[in-house]
Design goal:
173 residues, alpha+beta, 22% helix
């Protein structure tokens, strides 16, 4: 059964679609319009500091010392391993990053972790008249099926938090 949850931060609406012909997966689709140019935003949201600025204080991720350079990342192979820390302190998962696709203003990450069989995160930046719409679509397949409800709740909460943090980091003038 697939549960697809679409969230709109401005309206806090949730839509669900169910299908019995697929493995258990949960998806979050959330968009936020930010008042800055896509190029400026892309540079910020694809750096370790930018990612952690979105996640903290709920979560912090470890990153390798070297520059990530998504544009030059090898596709469909492990890029690096990252510890995920609850509240920035307590390690609770180990995430292996795999970039599946990258292009101007978008990437698709198809990773896995100790807790997730699949973590697929697509981030897309689209220019608008007033700045940029940043859209995250995340599909998660937990390793333990009985954690599906909890996984769905946590992923939704994390991405709502990330988008609120982005709005705080890039406020309207």
């Amino acid at each position: 059964m697939i549960i697809i949850i679409k969230l709109d931060v401005k309206h806090e609406s949730t839509h669900m679609t169910f299908s019995d012909d697929a493995p258990p997966a949960h998806a979050v689709d959330i968009s936020t319009e930010l008042p800055c140019a896509p190029d400026r935003l892309w540079h910020a949201v694809t750096t370790p500091a930018g990612v952690n600025a979105e996640l903290m204080p709920l979560i912090r991720m470890s990153f390798p010392e070297a520059d990530l350079g998504l544009a030059d990342a090898p596709l469909d192979q492990p890029l690096f391993g990252s510890w995920i820390f609850l509240f920035g302190l307590i390690p609770f998962d180990r995430h292996v990053f795999v970039i599946h696709e990258v292009g101007p203003g978008h990437f698709v990450e198809t990773s896995h972790s100790l807790l997730q069989k699949l973590w697929r995160h697509e981030r897309r930046l689209t220019a608008t008249e007033h700045g940029t719409v940043l859209r995250d679509t995340v599909t998660v397949v937990p390793r333990i099926g009985s954690t599906s409800t909890l996984t769905n709740f946590v992923v939704r909460a994390i991405f709502r938090h990330r988008h609120r943090r982005l709005q705080a980091l890039y406020p309207a003038a």
